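Input:
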Amino acid sequence: MMMSNSLYQDSHCAVDFTLAKLWVDRRAVTLTRKEYELLSALTSNAGEIVPRGVLLRTVWGYGPDIRTRTLDVHIRRLRRKLGGYGEQYIETIFGVGYRFQPWREPKPFAAEPHVLRASA
Amino acid sequence: MMMSNSLYQDSHCAVDFTLAKLWVDRRAVTLTRKEYELLSALTSNAGEIVPRGVLLRTVWGYGPDIRTRTLDVHIRRLRRKLGGYGEQYIETIFGVGYRFQPWREPKPFAAEPHVLRASA
DNA sequence: CTCTTTTTTGCAAATCTTTCACAACTTCCC
DNA sequence: GGGAAGTTGTGAAAGATTTGCAAAAAAGAG
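Output:
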């Protein structure tokens, strides 16, 4: 039985590890076990790259010589369940693995095109 | 004034652990012994997942290697006796167990502003 | 024996996981 | 730029597992 009430949370997304639940913008989303384990592995290292091999080992128990696409499929489903933020949250590090990025507010005045605020 | 030591209660359903009785919308429902024990195990952990293994152990005294469908059968009878709310109250956590959900589950987020920070 | 309660049995149905085939993409090199 | 090679994205379908359920057998109680 689980006991620690640990959860990840930022302004759009919350993960409760004891209830095995995810909320996206206050809307409850149910996760399957593998989805939950994968999300857990990612959020518990939020901001850091988690190599594919590590995920395949910790979530699936696979050895380093197993060829499978199930990780990609689960990543896709997680991204969907994260709503419109999926791509923003789960970043692909090509050739290495994935990284769960905590929510970052929209970039300030970067290389944005000219925005004029009309004053009536 | 008579007092019941332990009882679960929400707006539709009440369980008295000392009297071993259940009321659904003010209407008394008789439970058999096993039904009561199972409901008790669930409501006393209301809102939390109770794994199948735990139920089989605490209610039936079964070990971890027993294969039976009697738990499912009892869950079904309980759901029936909970009237139209059966499905709402007793939630199936696929591959894990069951969870008794208090009526209109409490929201994990605060109503208005929501910046809670959790410990890891 | 009769009635109630509990468990088992055997599928059916629902759910979750993995694979597959191929499209899309990244990187590297010429 | 234009491949080539390797990596990732994706929808659909197969595979595997779990749960729901009805009916009947088994177990108790009076």
